[in-house]
Design a protein that fits this description.
The complex is a heterodimer.
Chain A lengths: L1 H15 L10 E4 L4 E6 L1 H9 L5 E7 L4 H15 L6 E7 L6 H11 L5 E6 L7 H4 L6 E2 L1 E6 L2 E5 L5 H14 L2
Parallel strand pairs in A: 2-5, 3-4, 4-5
Antiparallel strand pairs in A: 1-2, 3-7, 7-8
Chain B lengths: L1 H21 L13 E3 L4 E2 L9 E6 L5 H17 L6 E5 L11 H10 L6 E3 L6 H4 L3 E2 L1 E8 L2 E8 L15 H10 L13 E3 L5
Classes of the chains: A alpha/beta, B alpha+beta.
Chain lengths: 176, 202
């Protein structure tokens, strides 16, 4: 049943953005506005950060309780809303606590009207996976991975609007 | 021209992040002492503890949910290791102008609520955490006294499960202190964890 729901979602998502499928999640949580894949264990999500997609993927690690993350979130949302035909995809990887996904994350996504892809990484053994996202990452959030065909860049920082947009512009220009 | 400037840009970004990592201590380095104000108003330095064999220095704070999740475990570490010569020294590295929850007054409140048995110091002016290289809360530096110096023996996380202490099966800090007490080197001597950024004015 769970797989069927997910396949349907993939199909729907596929009709909008082809070939940008997310790895199959361990489970899915949903509200009347959002459907969010949950990866229990980093391994299930690993393809997302280990592949070299044709489209520039901007993978932001955040949580609703992280003030600097919430502050920069609107700039990532702008990238999604204003992307037009630019080949980019924003994925917001929530590190919210397991007990707060339904009570805190889903209402947050609804209140803020988040349109970027949101997934949850539920793997408390962070020492086992932080280096796989990027060895330069200390583990502080927010952190953002920029992943494209010829691009792999990790930034442990809170972006201003200008910093994020000019970095994305320069990365997109680099890609032929 | 453009084809050259853009890769250069990327290179500069990369160099920027490398510099960020290079700051702060690595295992084996000598850690600085400090003189910081405790929640009881007294000034505290490592040199005050003449009988200690070392210190479990933990950069932590009030507001960060990860720090809160570890409070009871930090208390337990102090209870277990203080008498064995490795007391906990907690330091709040955040600028309260950026995160008001981490003001000195709020630190005093939290220390009283939780009856912290260890000093909870305020890194006023944020002079100490950059020398250690702390990037997040909580962030542990295990120090061992050696010929009057404080040598860094372990850097990183407290254990491998922030959300559920019962299910942590790697107790990094406890294992590292046990190793030192047995005359061994901690293994691992460096781990990572998700945490809150240290709050500072840009």
């Amino acid at each position: 049943m769970r797989t069927a729901v997910w396949l349907t979602m993939l199909f729907l998502a596929g009709s909008i953005v082809r070939a940008q499928a997310l790895p199959e999640p361990s489970r899915v949580i949903s509200s009347n506005t959002h459907v969010v894949p949950v990866y229990r264990g980093f391994e299930a999500m690993a393809p997302l950060v280990e592949r070299r997609p044709d489209t520039l993927h901007i993978i932001n690690f955040w949580a609703t309780w992280c003030a600097p993350c919430v502050k920069e979130l609107p700039y990532f949302e702008e990238l999604t809303r204003e992307r037009g035909d630019r080949p980019l995809k924003v994925v917001l990887v929530s590190l919210d606590f397991r007990q707060q996904l339904e009570t805190r994350l889903l209402p947050f996504l609804k209140d803020r009207d988040i349109t970027s892809s949101v997934v949850v990484l539920d793997d408390p053994d962070a020492n086992s996976w932080i280096d796989r996202v990027d060895p330069s990452w200390s583990g502080a959030i927010p952190g953002t991975l920029f992943l494209g065909k010829g691009t792999r860049l990790f930034r442990e920082q809170t972006f201003t609007r200008n910093e994020l947009h000019s970095l994305v512009d320069s990365l997109l220009e680099r890609t032929p | 021209m453009k084809t050259y400037t853009l890769p250069l840009f990327a290179l500069l970004f990369t160099l920027g992040s490398l510099t960020a990592i290079a700051d702060g201590y690595e295992v084996g380095d000598r850690a600085t002492d400090f003189r910081l104000k405790n929640v009881d108003g007294a000034m505290v330095s490592l040199s005050d503890y003449s009988d200690a064999k070392g210190f479990i220095v933990i950069f932590t704070c009030n507001h960060c949910p990860y720090s809160v999740a570890y409070e009871d475990r930090i208390i337990a570490l102090d209870r277990k290791y203080r008498d064995k010569g490795f007391p906990v020294i907690a330091i709040n590295p955040n600028d309260p102008a950026v995160q008001p929850e981490d003001s000195f007054e709020k630190m005093q409140e939290r220390a009283e609520e939780k009856a912290f048995p260890f000093p909870y110091l305020f890194d006023e002016g944020q002079k100490i955490y950059p020398q250690y290289g702390a990037t997040r809360t909580p962030h542990v530096y295990l120090l061992e006294k050696s010929d009057g110096d404080h040598i860094v023996r372990y850097i990183g996380a407290i254990d491998n499960n922030h959300s559920d202490p019962e299910n942590a099966d790697q107790h990094y800090v406890a294992d590292a202190v046990d190793a030192l007490l047995a005359g061994d080197n901690p293994d691992p001597d460096m781990t990572k964890a998700i945490g809150c950024t240290i709050k500072t004015k840009k």
